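Task: fold both queries, return tokens.
Query 1:
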Amino acid sequence: MQISLHSATPKSAEILHSLRSIFAEKGFDGASMQDLARAAGMSAGNFYRYFPSKAAIIEALISHDMKLMAQDFESALLAGDPMAEICFQIRSRIHQHQCTVDGCLWAEINAVALRKPEIAEIIAKMEATVTDYLVKVYATRTGTTSDPAQSVFAPQAALVIALFRAAVMIGSPSSNVKRQVTDQIIGIIEKTLDDRSSGTRKD
């Protein structure tokens, strides 16, 4: 059974979900490769063939999430108002992640990245890809060419990514305070995106 990072078969998605849950439950250091192989329903030897390290598993999880994220961005780029659509997608994804183990998982991944350069590099590549997409959405809405859009909007894109990550790591908004904080973060994200793209659009 081959686990492709680029194909989203039901079986591969199911395996990655199982691995996500184990990481969220036991942590990066607490989850052994044997735990992860067992969760994937694979023998340890076969598991190591496809995931030689925990970093490789993190890369597979991020690759899977990036494929979903790319679909959101491609949908936004085809919308009448790309920035409004991406704001809607961001809000939806935040609430979706808060209702799953993703908040715990991302908190764990970010903590590990502080001490493991290979994980930090994977996250940096992911954030660079998301930045490129956000810049593309900005350029599409404003009629700006790629290089000027990158120069103007990249810092705002980095802020949006940081805020998104913070909102996801709040976890399930079970209290009124958490809900209010989440709403405030989403509001800042939407204002950051709107302030840069409104008033500069070329109709």
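Query 1 returned. Query 2:
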Amino acid sequence: MEIGIVGLPNVGKSSLFNALTKAGAAASNFPFTTIEPNVGVVSVPDERLEFLTKTFASAKTVPATIKFVDIAGLVKGASQGEGLGNKFLSHIRSVDAIVEVVRVFDDKNVIHVHGGVDPDNDISTINTELLLADLDLATKALERANKERSKDPYVLKHIRGLGKAIEFFNNDIPLRTKLELAVELEEYGFLTAKPLLYVANVSEGSADISAIKAHAEAEGAGVISINVKAENEIVELPESDQAEYRSELGLKSGLDEVIKAGYELLGLITYLTAGPDESRAWTITKGAKAPQAAGKIHTDFEKGFIRAQVYAFEDLKKYGSEKAIRDAGRLRSEGKDYTVVDGDVIEFLFNV
């Protein structure tokens, strides 16, 4: 999973990136500190994986990972190349989901490109630029499709779909709210079709995120609040002290919150494999069948799929071993039509 972190300059994008990845990206009190995107890969925290490693005495633990991309700040006119607009748009087009950082905190020592804190206006500025970029892309794509117009149903279908998309963009409607059309036009990489999570960058005295919630509800997006400044201070502490400090401040882990919301937005779940060699977490799309899940390990597993030996992680915690699970009748043999569930521990049997 690759997540792009975007927002206006000086809203805390790079600070959030640093808190999530501990990458030490530059974060300063002036626009465009980030020019080329900063990239950080982090492990997805999963207590289940730690338990499996101990239970099986695994030689190696391999968690799922997320790539975060800190993208240059966006300004009004980016869709026409203002600021670092063209770079911004090219970098964001490659990610799976967007985290849009919105400034809610008020700090006279940190300048705001619009002169004052206004979450509603900031969101409108960024979303307008994304819509304009998509409108330009759709218009050009429709022109090309019309030149290639024929009796080919595929081309005709795209002409109709692009026409609908242009109508939505002209009416400030992001494509993520039109799921069927977004899937139909997936190959074009429209920015407003990508899952979106708003991160309200708050301080202790700034809890009003009603404007952000209203946008999220209207746009089919998610929203969470993170005190980015406090988060950066916490992640600098020894790991053994972080949980206690969070408890004192009443703060959840920013990384955990972003990952949880990201998985929900993208419709992802985790299944697990375990043994003496390694315990590993695998990320798949919710609703995936057993052969598709096997294919995440190797294409041969999917091609030669025979069956899956499955039990729930919670049963392992309850019974203590695979043998006890088997004796209790909780180990299942599942076929090609089995839909994998989050937390399944699976051994795939295959023949190539």
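Both queries returned. Flag for query 2: Residues 243 and 253 are 9 Å apart (CA to CA).
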